[in-house]
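From the shared-data thread, chain only:
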Amino acid sequence: MNIKQNLILITLVLFISACTHKAPYTNRNQMILISSEKELALGKQSYEQTLKESKIIYNTKDSLRVKRIGERIARVSQKNYAWEFNLVDNKAKNAFCLPGGKVVVYTGILAVAKNDDQLATVISHEIAHALARHGAERVSAGMISQGVQTLGNIALSTQGSQYSQAFNIAYGLGAQYGVLMPYGRLQESEADEIGIHLMHAAGYDLNEAIKFWENMSAGKNEGIEFLSTHPSSKNRIKNIKNIIKKVQKTR
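Structure, as C-alpha cells:
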C-alpha cells in the first residue's frame, strides 16, 4: 500500500470512528474526537477565567431576567448540566455558552432583545451550541485538519520543499474557506434551529425570534457570507421563518 492509499485509509478511519454522535433535533452526524469529560473540563476552565476578567452584574432586574429565562429554557433542554447564567457588563451585542451549560450574556444585547421572548431567542441559541457540543466539534475539525496537513507534508517530503510550501498555502486557504468557515455557518444555523425548538418547548413566542434577528441586522453592513463563520442576516431570517413554520405544523 503506497503513501497516498495510507492517507486515504487513515482519513476514512478517523471520519468513521468520529461520526458516532448526532446533534439534537436535527440528527446531523457529528465528528467529535474529544470526550465529554475533557470538553466539560475545558469549558469550566474557560468559564472561570472569563468570570475573573469580567464585571458580573448581580441582583438587578436584568440579571434576574437572564437567570429566570435561562433556567426556564434549561428545564426543557433535557440535559443535566450544572447550568449557570450570568449577565456581564459589556457593551458588545453578544452572548455565549461554554461547554457544560455556562451561559454569559453581555449587557449590550439587551438593547437589541426588546422583550423576554427576544432575550429567550439569544439564550436558546447559545444553549443550543452547548447541547450540540459545537465547541468539541470545532476542536475535532481542527484536529483533523491539522492531522491531514501533517500527513500531506509527509507524503510530499520526498518531492522537494517547494511542493510542501505550495501545498501548505493551498491547504490552509482551502481548509479555512472551504471547511472551517462553512462548518461555522452550519453550526450557527443549527443552533438557530435547535434554539427555536427549545423556545417552543419553553412556551416562548417564536415570531419574536424573527424580530430579534431583524433588530440585530438593522443598519449592519455585512460582508460576503462565504468569508464569514456566520450566515448572512437575510439567509438566517429566511431559514428561521422556515423552521418556525415546520415547528408550528407539529402543534
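The CA atoms of residues 118 and 212 lie 5 Å apart.
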